[in-house]
Amino acid sequence: MQPSSTGASVATSDALAQPTLHPDSPRADGRRFPDAPLLADDRHRPGQRSFRRANLALFAAGIATFVLLYSTQGLLPVLSDDLGLTPGQASWTASAATLGLALGLLPASALADRYGRTAVMTASTLAAAALALALPFAPDLTTLVVLRALQGAALAGLPATAMAYLAEEVHPSALASAMGLYVAGNSIGGMGGRLLSGWVAAGFGWRWGLAASAALALLAVLAFRLLIPAARHFTPAPVDARALARTVGRHLRNPLLLRLYALGLLFMAVFGAVYNTIGYRLIAAPFHLPESVAASIFVVYLVGTATSAAAGRLAGRLGRRGALYVAIGTTALGLLLSLADSLALALLGLVLITAGFFAGHATASSAVGRTATEGRAQASALYLIAYYLGNSLGGTIGADAYHATGWPGAATIGLAAMALAAAVTLYATHRAHAGSRTGGPRGGLSAQ
């Protein structure tokens, strides 16, 4: 799914903080140390067993996290049928998890700085998997929603920590490939969680669908714990709530960052509204698809993998604002096409919505690190908070709108979000042009 990350600051060990000595390194007085030892950089590199283990461990953790996070989204129509729920009520089982995740990101990042990356990732995934085992036995909607909110909060430890672990433990020359594999695990988990639970639920009911997701996630968690190499370059830091609050406050007063956070929220609101209701649309008139076939629609999620990679090239050619305009237009066109009663046009619309969402998210999230001049980890965490809040709000409001007026209601929520995103981007364009005339600061969303 998503490429930005963490919420945790990247620590560097004392050994790595020292300059690497070389036989030809000059002394302060200009003389040389012919016998100076060469300090080995023992971070994981390609070809090493530890590098493969670290990659596979984070890949498995990403699968576990996003299988669990989206496990109910693929079975919302089944939940509605079995428990007599409206789409809005059923959607809370998905929205509660992303809301819990959003609220847990900053605390999890602080705990990771204090107690270590692997400790927090292990506790996070194990707690979430344990809660997943309890979900199939939930007696009613309220219990299910509460468990899902707790599960989301538990899951926050991985996205708040994983990329910090990789940045500390993997050699810089291999960091891009390691992070790419971690993001791939996120994408496969996000798609797999929706597909697996939806397929199993179509045949055996939602409880078995959740049980299947829990079993897959538990296997992935065990693989993560067995494979993850011990951290060698983590330096514990005390939790300084006041310093964290000051950093967060500065970010929230930065108008460029606020615009990026708003865009993340708005794009994810569309995604939540569409994917929380698309199953209902496909099994209803005029399509009447079987629930198992409707659940397969989440394969479209793979479009996002290619789109996220292409977004960087698009921003390089058109500028960030240009890329955002393309993403907004693509998403809006997809929403309009999805209104058609033709299955082919509706599916094409879904492809365009997915492509536009991932392009917009990749563009906005990548601008956060460039815009923040300090506290980049906290800046990224705030973006993710807005992003997952958008999922919760859009998913719930979109499902209520679908219940009230059908698919046009959900599509209207999406179009309204894209209109707001366009307004934010137009305002940024105006500010950038004004800044270029007066010589004012430019950056982030205002960057060409």
Could you characterize the architecture of this molecule?
With 448 residues, the chain is mainly α. It has helices spanning 14-17, 49-69, 76-83, 87-115, 117-134, 141-155, 162-169, 172-204, 206-227, 241-252, 255-283, 291-295, 303-337, 343-371, 376-405, 407-438.
Question: What's this entry about, in short?
Answer:
Helices cover 74% and strands 0% of the residues.
List the topology elements.
Elements: H1 14-17, H2 49-69, H3 76-83, H4 87-115, H5 117-134, H6 141-155, H7 162-169, H8 172-204, H9 206-227, H10 241-252, H11 255-283, H12 291-295, H13 303-337, H14 343-371, H15 376-405, H16 407-438
Helix pairs in contact: 2-5, 2-8, 2-9, 3-4, 4-5, 4-6, 4-11, 4-15, 5-6, 5-9, 7-8, 8-9, 11-14, 11-15, 11-16, 13-14, 13-16, 15-16
Strand content: under 5%
Radius of gyration (CA) equals 23 Å
Structural class, from helix and strand content?
A: mainly alpha
Query: What is the CA-CA span between the terminal residues?
Result: 25 Å
| Strand elements, count | 0
Largest beta sheet, briefly?
Answer: none
Helical residue percent?
over 70%
Order of helices and strands: HHHHHHHHHHHHHHHH
As residue ranges, the low-confidence spans are: 1-39
> Mean pLDDT, nearest integer?
85
Number of helices: 16
User: Which shape, going by the Cα principal axes?
Assistant: globular
Characteristics:
16 helices, mainly alpha, 0% strand, globular
